[in-house]
Structures are given as C-alpha cells and as structure tokens.
Amino acid sequence: MVEKLNYRIDVCGPAGDRFDEILTPAALDFVAKLDNAFAGRRRELLDARRVRREELQSGEKPLGFLPETRAVRDDSSWSVAPAAPGLEDRRVEITGPTDRKMTVNALNSGAKVWLADFEDATSPTWHNVIDGQLNLFDAIRRNIDFTTEAGKRYTIGDEPATIVARPRGWHLVEKHIRIDGRPVSASLVDFGLYFFHNARQLLARGSGPYFYLPKLENHLEARLWNDVFLLAQRELGIPRGTVRATVLIETITAAFEMEEILYELREHIAGLNAGRWDYIFSVIKNFSSHGADFVLPDRAQVTMTVPFMRAYTELLVRTCHKRGAHAIGGMAAFIPSKDPEINATALQKVRQDKEREANDGFDGSWVAHPGLVPVCREVFDEALGGWPNQLGKLREDVVVTAEDLLDVASAGGEVTEAGVRANINVALRYIDAWLRGTGAAAIHNLMEDAATAEIARCQIWQWIRNGTKLEDGTALTRELTVSYLDEELASVRSELGEGNRLGDAYEIFTETALGEKLPSFLTTGAYARYLTTH
C-alpha cells in the first residue's frame, strides 16, 4: 500500500520474485496520477461507445464519414511527425506475449520490430502482467537470457528488434491495483509502468518509448491517448513528442475515422495497422440486428481479399501515406510444422498474403512466429528495394466510400457444419489455454490469441440469431449448436487429459455465444472470477 495526501493506492495482487522492482512507490504514484487525471474521460468515452453501438443497431444514426471533421480530412497542410529512431524501417514485425522465452526469441528473430503484447496475446494474470514488465525492464538493459530444458542458453544479440509495447484496451481494468478502492485502467497500468521504468533508458540507447494502441473506436479515444502521452512526458521531464504510437484499426467505427485518429495523435503517431479478427468482430457487434446482409460465412472464408476487407485495407494505406505515416499489414499466424506438405502449402499462402500487402503499398507486416520472418522479409525486401518504406506510394488511385466499407454482403461464401465445429473447437481450446495463463496458444498449426475466441464465438451467436442455414439447408439453432458443443468438448477433453479448464471454457462459451446478448468473453462472470483470483 502507498499512502498519499489525496489518495490511497492498494496493490491487491500477491507478491512475486522481484515484483517490488516494478511496483515501486514512485511508479505506482505515476500510474495513479495518470489514472486520476483521465478516469472520468475514460468512463465518458466508454459510455459513448455503448450509445453509439445502440444507434448503429437501431439504425438511428448510420455509420459514415464524420461531417463535423471534414475540415481535418480536406486540409492538405498537416502531416504526422517524422519516423522516430528504430521505426524508420518496419518491413517485418513479430508479435507475441512478454514472457521471458518470447522476449529473447522475438528480439533475436531478425524482425525489425517486436510487438511486446500485454493485450490479446497475454492472459492477464497478475503474474503475467508484472513478470512481463520485468522481462521488458531486463531486455531494455540487455540483462536477460533464457535457458531451455535441454540446457541451451540464449541471450540477446547485437541487433535486437525495436520494442513496441501494446497495453490493454480502454475497456479493461486492472483489479489488482486500486486507487481509493476503485480498480485502475489496465491501459494506464501497462503504459504507465513501462513508460516510468524505461523511457529514459530507451532514449539513452537511441530508441524511445513506443506503443501499439488497441481497440480504439473513434478519434476522441485517440485524443485521450495523446493527452496521456503529454502528461506522462511532462511528469518525467521527457521532451514532448518523444512517444510514438501505432494505432490498430480493428473496429469498424475507427475505419471511418482513420484520418482524424492520425490528426489527434499527429505529434506522437507512427502509423496504423490493419487488424482482422477484431475488425470482423466489431462488424458483427455493431450490426448484429441488421439481418442477413451482415451475416458472414465461415471464418476461414473471410479473407483480406473479400471486398469490404479490401476496401478497408486500401483506404488505410492511402490515408497513412497521405499524412506521412506507416501502414502496417496484418498477421500471418501460421506456425511452421514438422509436416513438409503442410509447411509448403501454408508458406505459399503466407507469401501470397504478404505479396498482396507489399503490392498494395504497406510498409511492413506482422508474423507470429520467428520461422515466418524470412518469408515476410524476402517479400518486402523485393518490394522496397533500397528504401526503408513505401511512403512515396500514395495510392491516389484508391477511392473508398462508406458503402464499400459496409458491403459485408459481398463477402459471399457459406456457413458449414465444419465451420461451426471449427469455431467451437478452437474457442474451447483457446479459452482453456487462456484460463491456464497462456494468451498466445498454438492451435491447429496457427498461433491464436484472444481475438480468435472473440470472432469464433460471436460468429456462432450471429448465425443462431439469424437462423442461418448450413450448406445442407439445416438451420443452425441453439439446440443444434449445443449438440455440436458437447461433442467437441468431449473430443477436446479426451485429447487434453487432466489439468484443463474446459469446464470453465464451456461456461464462458455458453454465456457469450448462446445467450441473448453479445458480451466480450473478457467481461463474463467466469472471467471476473478468474481475474480476481489470479
């Protein structure tokens, strides 16, 4: 506990090895200053999210480009800050959680950037949150190693990737740190602890405090982050504009405000990233009452080349390059297999995906495994030539309308029993792994994170709600889904054996996929019980 004149900070999580190096009184006070300054605005913005979702569901206020910010979009005089040290060349970025093994492997992977993920790839146990901060603390000071079970020791090489940390989204709280009894914003815990301990050290090493910002829904949420950066820099005496942020465009509402998001963060922005599963989840969440025109086919059929996804990614490249920001492509989640045939097929698909992004003008892209770094790098090396990026590729040929972004019906495809079962199977497996403390789980040769569970179970919710017919004409009902769920549960349980959390995973899936409402699995009762006990 830290006592201050105007507030009280309580750390409710259990003590761990070296946790006191991160949870110092000064660091906690810094987090408290941030949270006290912005807690009210954060709550107001979350309330505004709910109101906007209700407007979209009812059709009361359709989604479109904002008339009130047209002047920002039409003004050609502004651009974002120039690239910061270590972020000029982002042709390959690797993503993953902040455990010690991943920290060493990611930094040594040959990627230009490591997205050190406190968000979707991290199960937010108290241990994972603080241990992740310790691992980054050590890595930045070149004081980290990892030894395998076979006794092989790994240390950081001479040219490690640039670290870009991803805090949790505005919608989550960290219940293990409380100010006057209320939980602190998880975003500000992750950002604040990392910034407080490492900003000066990063600058001394020729880099800087860089962040990925997830789940933003509009430019006002970007403005809040910008104000957080200003206060944090001022509190620590760090020059204004030192922070750099890359915003994930992974909600349908943010896709209509990309230019405004760049503008709000213009002295701190590095670029935008094109997400996938969270973006599709956002489409379903906001338009679930709009019937068949917004019903999507099997998850595997919703590729980045379907018209509404292609419109969003091409608009992202044009918007970024118009303002001098980097455009970063989406995830290649494949995990190299021991089966050469599986590898050959998957790697060809990865190559095609990265070639499409490079040809579209993206400046770099994501991979989830070190084994994919060479493929991605080779593709972008060829596209970039001797240049560090493609900022000169303005894509002025791209014209995207609101109708293009909302043309979900053009995705085509079908819903199949195999697709339903695949969603159930992967959701059960992922939520089980997540409840056991693993946020990035290898499932069926893919690296899956929380976004996987969200899209997998919300698609099923959408199909049931709309009475969607399978390929044989059978309507997908709740009863039929439960029969599939029970069969998949038995299959997964027989494979995983003892020590699993499949019972809780089943409860979460049932609550979030088969109920009347569409909550995030991260806000369920089972999740709340898990978080308060871990």
Automatic annotation (TrEMBL):
Indicate the segments forming the Malate synthase N-terminal domain, all copies.
Answer: 10-69
Which residue range or ranges hold the Malate synthase TIM barrel domain?
162-407
Which Pfam family is an annotated match for this chain, by its short name?
Answer: MS_C
The GO annotation for biological process reads: glyoxylate cycle; tricarboxylic acid cycle
The protein's GO terms of the molecular function aspect are: malate synthase activity
List the EC numbers from the record: 2.3.3.9
Chain ranges of the Malate synthase C-terminal domain: 415-528
Keywords assigned by UniProt, alphabetized: Glyoxylate bypass, Transferase, Tricarboxylic acid cycle
The record, for SUPFAM superfamilies, names: Malate synthase G
Family according to the record: Belongs to the malate synthase family.
Descriptive protein name: Malate synthase
